[in-house]
C-alpha cells in the first residue's frame, strides 16, 4: 500500500541509507522525548493535583536528578554530532578516481558535460556502481543541485567551483531539483538523473560523436596562446603545468596552497595575487573572455596533464601525448 504513498524518496545511492538511518534515529529520539514530556505533564497534573486538606510540599531541587538529565543528553548530543560528522565527511570527500561531470547552472537550466565530452541539458546519464564527482559552477546567481534519491544537495555558486559526489546503486530515473530560489522560473529548473546498467551506459556514451573535455581544453589552450608560456617540455615564462594538479604550490606572496579546481579557475580568469613563486605576474586576464564551459575544458585539460594517484604512475590523458600543441 505504501508503494503509492512513499514517505521517503528511493534510496538510490551508497550514502542514502546512512542519511536515512540518522534521520530515523533523530525522529525516534525526538518522538520519545516529546511523548515523555507530554506524558509526564499529564501524569503529574493528575497525581499532584490540589486536594482539600493536603498542604503543598515545597521541593528545593535535586542535584543527582539535575546532573543525570544534563549528562545523559550531553552524550546523546555528542553521539548525534559524531554520527552526523562521519556522514558529512563521507558526503564531502569525493573518492579518488571518480568519474567527473562538469555542471554549469544558469537561469533556468542545468548544463552538464561528461569528461568524455557528451553534453546534456537538464538530464544526466550515469552508470550504476561508479563514483561520480560533480564539479559545479553557476554563470549567474546561486543555485543548488539537489538529488533527493541520492541524498545530496550542494549550492552552486557563481565565480567558483563547488563539488559533490555520489555512487548510484539502483538503475532508474530520479528527480533533479534546483533547491535555491533563483528567480522567476526557479521551480522549472528541474531535470532527471538516469542511472543505467554499465553496458547500457557504454552504449549511451558511444551513441554520438564527442570530443573529450580535456582534448577540447588542449585545443583551447593552444588557441588562446597559453601554450606559449606554459610549456610542457621545459619551464617557460609561466609554470610548467605537467603533474601540477593536486600538488602544493608556493605563491609569490608566501602562501602555499594545493592546486585544485578552484585555484586553476582563479588563475585562468585572473591570476593577480595568485602568482607562483619565481614567476613574473605577466599572465593576461581572461575574465570575460572565456565561457564557463571553456574554463571547465581548460581545467579538465590541466588536470589531465598528470594526476598523482598514490600507488600509481602519473596518469596522463591518452589524447594529450600525441597531439601536443606546437610551441613557436
Ligand atoms: Cu536555480 Cu533555483
Classify the helix fraction into a percent range.
25-40%
**What can be said about the biggest beta sheet?**
5 strands, mixed
Order of helices and strands: HHEEEEEEEEEEHHHEEHHH
Average predicted confidence as pLDDT? 85
**Radius of gyration, CA atoms, in whole angstroms:** 27 Å
Just name the CATH architecture of the domain at 99-205: Sandwich
Q: What percent strand?
A: 15-25%
Bound molecules: dinuclear copper ion
Structural class by SSE content? alpha+beta
In which order are the strands of the major sheet placed? Answer: 3-2-1-5-8
Structural overview:
The chain is built from eight helices and twelve strands. The chain has about 325 residues and is of the alpha+beta class. Among the domains are: about 110 residues, Immunoglobulin-like (Sandwich); about 110 residues, Cytochrome Bc1 Complex, Chain D, domain 2, CATH 1.10.760.10. The strands form three sheets. Strands 3-2-1-5-8 form a five-stranded mixed beta sheet, covered by helices on one side. Strand 2 and strand 3 form a beta hairpin. Helix 1 runs antiparallel to helix 2 and helix 6 packs across helix 7. The longest helix has about 30 residues. The chain starts with 15 loop residues before the first helix and ends in a 6-residue tail after the last helix. Bound molecules: dinuclear copper ion (CUA). The site of dinuclear copper ion has 9 residues, from loops.
Amino acid at each position: 500500500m505504501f508503494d503509492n504513498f512513499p514517505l521517503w524518496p528511493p534510496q538510490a545511492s551508497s550514502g542514502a541509507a546512512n542519511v536515512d538511518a540518522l534521520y530515523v534515529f533523530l525522529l525516534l529520539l525526538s518522538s520519545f522525548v516529546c511523548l515523555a514530556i507530554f506524558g509526564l505533564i499529564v501524569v503529574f497534573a493528575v497525581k499532584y493535583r490540589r486536594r482539600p486538606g493536603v498542604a503543598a510540599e515545597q521541593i528545593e531541587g535535586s542535584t543527582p536528578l539535575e546532573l543525570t538529565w544534563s549528562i545523559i543528553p550531553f552524550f546523546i548530543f555528542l553521539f548525534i554530532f559524531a554520527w552526523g560528522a562521519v556522514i558529512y565527511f563521507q558526503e564531502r570527500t569525493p573518492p579518488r578516481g571518480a568519474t567527473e561531470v562538469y555542471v554549469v547552472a544558469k537561469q533556468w537550466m542545468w548544463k552538464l558535460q561528461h569528461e568524455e565530452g557528451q553534453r546534456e541539458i537538464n538530464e544526466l546519464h550515469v552508470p550504476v556502481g561508479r563514483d561520480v564527482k560533480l564539479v559545479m559552477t553557476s554563470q549567474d546567481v546561486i543555485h543548488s543541485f539537489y538529488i533527493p534519491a541520492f541524498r545530496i544537495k550542494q549550492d552552486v555558486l557563481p565565480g567558483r567551483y563547488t563539488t559533490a559526489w555520489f555512487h548510484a546503486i539502483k538503475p532508474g530515473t530520479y528527480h533533479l531539483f534546483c533547491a535555491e530560489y533563483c528567480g522567476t522560473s526557479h521551480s522549472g529548473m528541474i531535470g532527471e538523473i538516469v542511472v543505467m546498467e554499465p553496458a547500457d551506459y557504454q552504449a549511451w556514451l558511444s551513441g554520438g560523436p564527442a570530443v573529450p573535455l580535456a582534448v577540447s581544453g588542449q585545443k583551447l589552450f593552444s588557441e588562446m596562446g597559453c601554450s606559449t608560456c606554459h610549456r610542457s617540455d621545459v619551464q617557460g615564462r609561466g609554470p610548467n603545468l605537467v603533474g601540477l594538479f593536486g600538488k602544493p604550490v608556493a605563491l609569490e606572496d608566501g602562501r602555499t596552497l594545493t592546486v585544485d579546481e578552484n585555484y586553476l579557475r582563479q588563475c585562468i580568469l585572473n591570476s593577480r595575487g595568485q602568482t607562483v613563486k619565481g614567476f613574473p605576474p605577466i599572465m593576461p586576464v581572461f575574465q570575460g573572455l572565456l565561457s564557463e564551459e571553456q574554463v571547465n575544458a581548460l581545467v579538465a585539460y590541466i588536470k589531465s596533464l598528470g594526476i598523482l594517484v598514490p600507488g600509481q604512475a602519473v596518469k596522463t590523458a591518452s589524447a594529450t601525448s600525441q597531439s601536443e600543441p606546437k610551441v613557436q
